Amino acid sequence: MTSRLVLASASPFRRALLENAGLHFDVEPAQIDERAVEEPLSGLSPEDVASVLAEAKAQDVSSRNPGAIIIGSDQTLSLAGDILHKAANMDEARRRLLALSGRTHELNSAVTLVRDGETLWRHMSIARMTMRDPDPAFIGRHLSNVGDKALSSVGAYQFEGEGIQLFERIDGDYFTIIGLPLLPLLAQLRALGAIDG
Description:
By secondary structure, this protein is an alpha/beta fold. It has helices at residues 12-20, 34-38, 46-62, 90-100, 136-146, 174-178, 182-191, and strands spanning 5-7, 26-27, 69-79, 82-84, 104-115, 118-131, 167-171.
């Protein structure tokens, strides 16, 4: 028996991952203020913050979709334990890439399933991303090439596009990097009987 699935995210990347996997689902972005939810969480790890945000999104959408299984997901980027947020402008994106250069940061991707306000499952995957140390002029040229797309991701790079040129090593899977740990999610949806399997 399959269940109605709802993705509680506006992310076109998460949507594409689920569409490419052949899932049938609706999309309803959560209506929460992420920074307000995050504010009282200052003592939590970046992984826990991502988990709380994923669950808050799923709970919000669940309140308007009785009986549906809601997929909530969130990703934090942490550098030396500090959580970084999306750059507000291109100058901030340049500073972000310079700060990440030659260092390893983590992408902490959480996914949660909620039905009728009950949390059914939580999962966290972490990808460790080591950026090479490019010349600052290269970073400027890179940002000029990608334009405002740099502002759509917390790292100011699109790993699935030209941003791959910024990296020298990756420990983690592609889906975690994009922001939705897809293989564990599919396994859990099969276990719940929510998708054919």
